[in-house]
What we know:
Elements: E1 4-5, E2 20-24, H1 29-35, E3 40-46, H2 52-57, E4 63-71, E5 89-95, H3 96-99, H4 110-123, E6 128-133, E7 140-141, E8 145-146, H5 152-158, H6 173-178, H7 184-201, H8 203-206, E9 212-215, E10 221-222, E11 228-229, H9 237-240, E12 241-247
Amino acid sequence: MDKTIGQSYNPLLNSQDWDILIVLDACRFDIFEKINKIKGKLRKRISFSSCTGEWIQSVRGEDLSRIVYFSANPLISKQRLIPEKLDIKFKEFFDVWDKGWDDTLKSVPPKAVVNAVINYRNRSTAGKLVAHFIQLHPPFIGDTKINELGYEQIRLREKGEDISNKVFEKLTVYQQVKDGKISYEHCMKGYEDNLKLVLDSLTPILKLPGRKVITADHGDCFGEDGVFAHPAESRHPLLVHVPWFEVL
């Protein structure tokens, strides 16, 4: 039986199908299928996007005023939603990428997103919720840690800080694999442990009432077929095959 769902569907434009949408940034279908232990129904969705920019650009100009969005990715920020840029209208929007940033990890730990969602739900029952985690995107902060600069540069730029004289020393995970500084196998262990970390953190959200779906904006590549990271406008299967998991 084919478990694949087509690519024309956009979950942000079809909020009637969920009450809480959990977006795992850069999560591949094959790794989710391998690692996930949460009870539910898993299907493969063919995503319309191979990077976060395409994911949010797809709803440019839309009125999404039923949705409360929690973003751990600075590429989706309140400042980018203004009419002069994306012109997207959410019910409420929370820049977790800023307030939840951990300077040691160079990332936003899953707990920051979970806490923001629970704090909101404790004071309001209004709105559909989108919890957009930065994991599985590098750096890898689970049991197998692999450091890199993460979204530090993008975050500082989004805050309007001058980074022209700031030195960023860490190579990306993708470049470390490409240069042979870490093995592909070690990289994939870090990627899988990033998924375990975020899945283990979801319990408080999964206890909330309503229909919950776990999905991804896109996947990720670490040298497969010569592809690294998640370039825009790619249709590589590892980038566009993402989980669509209905939690039971």
